[in-house]
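Issue 218. Parser rejects a valid record. Input:
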Amino acid sequence: YDFYVRAICGSNDTSSWAGPNSFFTGYCTPAPTSVDGSGITNVTFDTVNNTTGTEAGNYGNYSAMIGSVPQGTVASVDITLSTAYSYGTKIWVDWNNNLGFLDAGEEVFFVLSSNSNPTTVNASFSVPATATLGQHRMRIGGADNNSGVDPCYTGSYASFEDYTINVTAPPAC
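Output the parser choked on:
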């Protein structure tokens, strides 16, 4: 956020604006209190192939890992869960980079996974042809039996990981 400040000492007595100054609030951090098994143990998309285990707080910030997806195409994401329970698995993308995932069109995928251990969810979603070129945060999360999973989930039996997708120009025909 950018902000400006000025003093108002009376109706006709104001100082000049000072600024801009800025501050960063960041993304909410999901904080599940528990996880079944190891939760998310692999995420693969584009050139990213990230194998993980149980993370502290059942959340892994891997936003430094970047995969590219062209505008107007379908992105494929494979998510391996090691839970032995059905997980309501979702993907959100912050298309407008406003540090949240609740705007229309930002929940891009949902499925209730199988309870096989491990199980791989083959997710896909359309990248809007109007998506802004550049980097966008992608959050993947799942909760036991789809118990109200949202991008800032703090309930029990869930697992979350963040990545970055780099939206590129669409391929030439």
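Fixed in the parser; the record now loads. The chain has no helices and 13 strands.
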